[in-house]
Design a protein that fits this description.
InterPro entries: Cell_wall_metabolism_enzyme, Dup_hybrid_motif, M23ase_b-sheet_dom. The structure is a single chain. The radius of gyration is 27 Å and the shape is globular. A hairpin with a 2-residue loop joins strand 5 (about 120-130) and strand 6. Strands 1, 2, 4, 5, 6, 7, 9, 10 and 13 form a nine-stranded antiparallel beta sheet that branches. The protein contains one helix and 13 strands. The protein is mainly beta. The chain is about 10% helix and about 35% strand. It has one helix at about 20-40; strands at about 60-65, 75, 85-90, 95-105, 120-130, 130-140, 150, 155-160, 170-175, 180, 185, 190, 200-205.
């Protein structure tokens, strides 16, 4: 007579539980998530000592116009040609982006009325710490810095151009706190460029000078 077969384990011989590794994995995932989320909740740090992103002693016109977006600043020199003028870091920081935003188009010093591109063209973005950031758009050529590079205030990032969606050579500039654009300050003073409800401009002289650098 055949004996009945069973797959049951003998009493008192249970499969060992493996909950500990699973619990440790959950804790590790939660810790990693907290490491990402918690810093995002911290308030921004103090405003860096931003200076104009142009050469020491030069006077530039800062302007905006309807549809430009609040707090966006366009820089035009008050004398001389805009093409190729140095674009400088406003404050110490680390380059996070250095490349192409959108498409370049075909506007150059040799063909200033060439086809427009899209977006910001050649551009640079700098993280200044404490959730502060600056952006520099429409550069003439590939930036002279690269992502991950540490820069000091006054270091050259590129040259003024008209790449991207640009009608004339100029520097489009932004200061950001966290995820929000804010009014740009230079040398501790608000620029006066705020709403884009109308076209207006101010004139400022750069104090982004070697003697003033830390």
């Amino acid at each position: 007579m055949l004996e009945a077969m069973t797959t049951e384990r003998p009493h008192g011989s249970r499969r060992p539980r493996r909950r500990a590794p699973r619990v440790l994995l959950i804790i590790a995932v939660l810790a990693a998530g907290a490491a990402v989320v918690v810093p995002l909740l911290w308030p921004p740090g103090p405003r860096p000592d931003f200076q104009l992103p142009v050469a020491c002693g030069e006077t530039w016109r800062l302007s905006t116009y309807p549809g430009h977006d609040d707090y966006d600043v366009d820089f035009f020199p008050t004398s001389g040609n805009a093409w190729g003028r140095p674009v400088l870091a406003s404050a110490d920081g680390t380059v996070t982006v250095a490349g192409i935003n959108g498409s370049l188009g075909g506007r150059t010093p040799q063909d200033p009325d060439g086809p427009r591109g899209r977006g910001g063209g050649y551009w640079v973005k700098i993280d200044h710490g404490g959730k502060w950031e600056t952006q520099y758009l429409h550069l003439l050529e590939p930036p002279s810095v690269q992502a991950g590079q540490r820069v000091a205030r006054g270091d050259q990032l590129g040259r003024v151009g008209s790449t991207g969606n640009s009608g004339a050579p100029h520097l489009h500039y932004e200061q950001r706190r966290g995820w929000e654009k804010v009014e740009a300050y230079f040398d501790g003073v608000p620029s006066g460029i705020t709403s884009d409800d109308r076209a207006y401009s101010v004139r400022l002289t750069s104090a982004n000078c070697p003697s003033a650098r830390p």
